[in-house]
Amino acid sequence: MKKLGNQTYEFQNPVYIKHCHTMVGQKEMTGPLAKYFKDYFIDDTFGEKSFEKAERKMLLTTIQDMIKKNQIHIEDIDLYVGGDILNQLVTTNFVAENLQIPFLGVYSACSSITESMAVAGMLIDGGFGKNILCSACSHFSAAERQYRFPLEFGNQRQAYSQWTVTGAGCMLLCGERCDSPRITRVCIGKVVDYGVLDLANMGAAMAPAAANTLLAFLKDTNTSVDNYDLIATGDLGKLGSDIFRDMLEQENVMIGNNYIDCGHMVFSASEEVMQGGSGAGCSASVFSAYIYHKLKQKKFKKVLLLATGALMSTTTNQQGDSIPAISHLIMMEA
Amino acid sequence: MKKLGNQTYEFQNPVYIKHCHTMVGQKEMTGPLAKYFKDYFIDDTFGEKSFEKAERKMLLTTIQDMIKKNQIHIEDIDLYVGGDILNQLVTTNFVAENLQIPFLGVYSACSSITESMAVAGMLIDGGFGKNILCSACSHFSAAERQYRFPLEFGNQRQAYSQWTVTGAGCMLLCGERCDSPRITRVCIGKVVDYGVLDLANMGAAMAPAAANTLLAFLKDTNTSVDNYDLIATGDLGKLGSDIFRDMLEQENVMIGNNYIDCGHMVFSASEEVMQGGSGAGCSASVFSAYIYHKLKQKKFKKVLLLATGALMSTTTNQQGDSIPAISHLIMMEA
Question: Is the pTM of the predicted complex or chain greater than 0.95?
């Protein structure tokens, strides 16, 4: 590896995203990306007794389907790196128990998929494994009742709120050359806090983190936004994306039509989802389905994925702390 | 690096624990390790408005003291890898915001210190940094009310329960040779679940994870327990340590006087602490103070540290799930 600037690492050895798989809920299948999502489930509980168990079944099924479909031998997987947004990372922990692969749990809220990919990529580049499994996921009903209100309460949603994506994305990173997209650089984020206090306003809390990491990456690599076919943030939503654009403009970085936000594009616009999707499963599923597909087809050749995570807890919020956020960046080439 | 067996990695490049620092609460200063703990605070709130903010101040102070005392330039620290046991990793996240070092949050409950050291060590061995900061911490009052009961409830403690350590440990891992203990091997744990359902019985839930990882490591490295001056588990407590010994004996591994448990030794025996200490700060502070000191003095020459983490949440517990656990192992040489 080669360190560029303060936060960016360039891989010297091959790190390929050999396989990807994703599963989503019913609502995501009514959105514009439905044709890219292959597997889904209708009942919010997935036949389980709780939303938390449904999330777990969704993640396990996603990984098992990827393993089965691609005839991967589970004993060939050196490590599993993953995270989710339920307390104590329980979805990923319980799935790791089922898989029996040596496991590293990571947490950066909705940036967990890019943190997993960054850690796994660095370990492969450093020679610590030929095959590393990564994953992230979220479930609307499980997340909503943990972070905000009981579903039965039926609260009115703020105009600037987002809707947690029910979805899981997983991938197998591989240290051998293959005909798949390659991870070439990663940029590790710093935690930033612009003083947002409102738990419903995730986009505003996370936009500064995405801007901070993208600006650091552009500086470290001496590149401009025009050098990339696609720059995708994870789950800023419509409002957060606008703030992100504004913050970049203030630094004279004009981001154009090559910019998308996974949260903004995953749902059809409605009063229910307001600013769009959020959650660790948002960037994980949109990347694993839509972006990965386009990279494979070489429709996109150089992609930056910046998932963003809000790092508060309900306790810090109740105690009056503002919401810190982080964004880790992954650069991929077709 | 060189992979040994299925779970163990041997570093080929220097990875040294250049500096360590620790801070504990008042109760820890009345225990047998008091002379190794240099910094402590008396008031449980550390002058803050909540226990959670006190935990944060404790971790930040510990890291800042290490930086100041050893004249470390913060800009020379490439990465910060750390975790804690509060929901959403808030203690470490907020401290990372303060430090402004590129940050990777990790979670494996009370095994967070060895996960941090393993990830940081692998990244240094792989060339991803010369200096990486690691930390873990816990605070009795913050942990107790999050995981079990409000403190005001004054519940009776079970005979097999443990007492969360109020303490923080941090260290600077360094890729340049120096006169400090060296990390030579790490073993990444698998998640195991032996069906323990009782949130108060952490020792029984975590002992199988420690046994599982130690047996894997001994097999991978073709060594026996007699090859090490010290084998330390993180926070099994008295009961958990006995279960750990029993499980090893069943596999014909007879662990002798070279075995200690950080949780068992951190407090003086009392009805209050029952089986001893627990929490991410237990192994972090006992290692950073006592074990590191003895390694520096070359009283211990070859040490295995196996911190152990119970990976349930209160929700999984209330939904009837048993408690999965993990243990990551670090091998150090004086």
Answer: yes
Asked if B93 and A191 come within 8 Å (Cβ–Cβ), the reply is yes
Condensed to tens digits (0 to 9), the pLDDT of residues B3-62 reads 999 999 999 999 999 999 999 999 999 999 999 998 999 999 999 999 999 999 999 999
Give the whole-number percent of chain B exceeding pLDDT 90: 97
Beta strand ranges found along A88-239 (DSSP E): 103-105, 131-138, 163-164, 167-174, 182-187, 230-233
CA proximity to A289, closest of A138, A142, A121, A171: A171
Contacts of B104 in chain A (CB under 8 A): 106, 108, 115, 118-119, 188
Are the C-beta atoms of B97 and B121 separated by less than 8 Å?
A: no
The stretch B146-150 carries a mean pLDDT of 93
Query: Is A150 part of the contact surface with chain B (CB cutoff 8 Å)?
Result: no
Q: Report the pLDDT value the prediction gives residue A47, as an integer from 0 to 100.
A: 97
First CA to last CA across chain B, in angstroms? 20
- B130 part of contact set with chain A, CB < 8 Å: no
The predicted-structure confidence for B313-322, as pLDDT tens digits, reads as follows: 999 999 999 9
Distances (CA, A) of A153 to A150, A175, A202, A210: 5, 49, 21, 33
Interfacial A residues in 163-222 facing B (CB < 8 Å)? 188-193
To test the contact with chain A by mutation, choose from B74, B113, B313, B330 the residue with the greatest count of A C-beta atoms within 10 A, namely B313
Q: Token pair 């998929």 is at which residue?
A: A113
pLDDT beneath 70, residues of chain A: none
The minimal CB distance from A104 to the residues B115, B126, B127 is found for: B115
| Rounded mean pLDDT, B193-214 | 97
Instruction: Give chain B as a 3 state SS string.
Output: CEEECCCEEECCCCCEEEEEEEEECCHHHHCCCHHHCCEECCCCCCCCCCHHHHHHHHHHHHHHHHHHHCCCCHHHCCEEEEEECCHHHHHHHHHHHHHCCCEEEECCHHHHHHHHHHHHHHHHHCCCCCEEEEEEEECHHHHHHHHCCCHHHCCCCCCCCCEECCEEEEEEEECCCCCCCEEEEEECCCCECCCCCCCCCHHHHHHHHHHHHHHHHHHHHCCCHHHCCEEEECCCHHHHHHHHHHHHHHCCCCCCCCEEEHHHHHCCCCCCCCCCEECHHHHHHHHHHHHHHHHHCCCCCEEEEEEEEECCCHHHHHCCCCCCEEEEEEEEEC
Q: Report d(CA B188, CA A331) in Å as an integer.
A: 27
